[in-house]
Amino acid sequence: MPAIKDDALVLRRLDYSESSQILVVLTRTHGLRRLIAKGAKRSTKTRFVPGIDLLERGWVVFLPGSRSDSHLGTLTEWLQTEAYLGLRTALPQWYAAQYAADVTVAAMEEAEPHVDLFDALAGLLGALSAGRSPLPEVVGYQCALLRSLGLWPDLSRCVLCDRVAPPGRAAYYGFHQGGLVCSQCVPAAGQVRKVGAAVLTSLRESDWPPDTVGPALALLDETLRHLIGRGTLLAKLDQGKVGSKQV
Amino acid sequence: MAELAHGIPEPLARLMAELTRLPGVGPRSAERIAFHLLRVPREEALLLADAIRAVKDKLRHCGTCCNLTDEDPCAICRDARREHGVIVVVEQPKDVMLLEQTGLIRGVYHVLMGHIAPLEGIEPADLTIDALIGRVRRGDVREVVLATNPNLEGDGTALHICEVLKPLGVQVTRLARGLAVGSQVEYASRAMLEAAITGRTPMG
Fold first, then answer.
1. Cα–Cα distance between B184 and A95 in angstroms, integer?
2. Is A245 contained in some domain?
């Protein structure tokens, strides 16, 4: 199989043996890939100089894996193009970037290209690296992730009975249903949460004033946790404010 | 004597299996080392066994700096000629050995035993940061030099330590970064060049 060249973001990096690493990268046009970088930790190897770090962007050349080796491809070249050094100067941005990497790897299927999501994640890392406030940026990325994967919740009508949700009013959100649930359908919906009118408006209009960004972040994170079936790094972003379940 | 399928005596097979578990040692290397140990005099072979046993039985962490030692406090922490007001913070005990080889560090060390890595579930509480704070709180520390690895996790760990030490009023510095000595600009990454340009120093 011919080698593939693509633009990529490094989302996970695990040590494998003395000198090799296994990377999980999001490529722009070939989706999420697991690659072994043989000799990546060895300073004498020049093809990966100066090493490959987490949350960097670069050009990868890799040989795709086969089914027999669980699709683990082999990285043959790496050229770093952006290190997002600003992430290393502020802890909120540092944690926010890792939150985004974590949910991306957990929510995506391997080898399914999502060009829009790649661009959204690269944009997020660039914004965080430039020192932009992390919470609105992360909410924007959560929206991009859910939309790109076709999992954006229906916020216009009850997902069970199709009744239209009137704008400007609070509503119930069903996590199992992935959208709004009207008050009549709440008993049948299982786990629901009441969402304020302002938060719903923010979600519908993709606008994040300071009073809605925390609740929107928590709501979308809970949606993601339902999808991926485990916890996230949300509490690291801002343990005081956005960890609150008051949405 | 019990033998395995390939006609290898069980003790030899066990030695080879144990050697294979060492980092960087594959089956062929394990076989070569095992036969070497068989060939050398008994006393010489047992020196290795004794050294392994001594490391496992006698080494522990220094109660002050958390470095590996056979005596608590360790030789560096006991050394009155050292500048105890300067603490160099590293991730692993082997980093202490490398820095000591330069002969340039006159201060003492603090070993974190890792770095903060949220994606791997490693939290600040899993490291020895509280012990470092305790050392600084006890006074007479004028500078903390952060010598964590210059990668994402190492820099995040340094940021966290800088934040928690800020209220204590101690000077916090970190090692310089940029181009590696002996390397070539041609092979430097953009990040290395950025760090080198930002951190350039006067010359002449």
1. 33
2. no
